Every structure is written in C-alpha cells, then in structure tokens.
Amino acid sequence: MVALEPAFGFLHEPASSQTSQSLVYDLQEPFRWLADVTTIEAFESGALDMKDFYFMGDDYRYHIETDAKRRFFELLRTKFNAGVKYKGKMWKWDTIILNKTQELARFLLGKSEHVELADLIPNMKRVDGSELRERILSLSTKKASELATGKSTLHDLR
Description:
Elements: H1 22-28, H2 32-45, E1 53-56, E2 61-64, H3 66-80, E3 83-86, E4 89-92, H4 93-108, H5 130-137, H6 141-146, H7 151-157
Helix pairs in contact: 2-3
C-alpha cells in the first residue's frame, strides 16, 4: 500500500482522453524506456509488424489489433518481471517501481529528504552496428514515407 492520491500528478493533469489518474502518468516517466525498448525488440523480433495496426480516419490515430495487443502485453509483462541487478541484488522491475513509488510517498509525507531516480540507469545490451546505421543514413525520404516514417522522425533517426 502506498497511499498516494492517483488523481493528483505533478507533471500531468487529468484529461478527457486519459484516465483521471494523472499520477500514474507521472510515475511512468522514469520507466518509459522499458516500454520503448520492448517496442523496438517486438518489431525487431517480428512479434509485431505494421500489419498489426490499422488507421481509423475519424480520430487520426493508429489502433492495434487485439491479438497483437495481447502479444505485446505479454512481452511487457516479461520485461517488467525480468531480473535486474539493482543496489547489489537481483530485483524485478515491478518491485523497483513499487519501491520508488513508496519512496515518493515517504518524501511527500516528510519522512524522507529526497526521491532518488537517477540510480535507475538502463542497462541495454544492444548491438546496433554499422549495418543498421548505414540503412538509416541511406533511407530516402520517399522510402521513409512508404514505411510511414515522417520527415521529422527520419531526421531524428539520422
């Protein structure tokens, strides 16, 4: 039990397109990279593909097919339950997130002097070699457009 009011965030305000639990959106920020890495790995492994998404013109957003969503949530569950070395011990990410949330609660109640989030450095064992770099650099604007990659995204990749 953490005893924080989920409706009151620090960075996010409740919005009609989100839940009224804006604190959840604040607490996800230090751990967003876990979902980002899982997304990249899902596409690289073929667990997800662009055919798993569809566009609905009425709201200008892509939607994900139900089966693809299930596959992705399983990958996320696996990532969040993976063991990681933290403070000299093996922890699961979901346990670390709970501990950091409890740390925030102690700070807000005046029982702690600080909340330490800088110690959550991602350990990403990735090898994106020169082949991938060359593919990105040689990608034409036209080909990027065919892959549904916008000009600004292509610029950021380069």
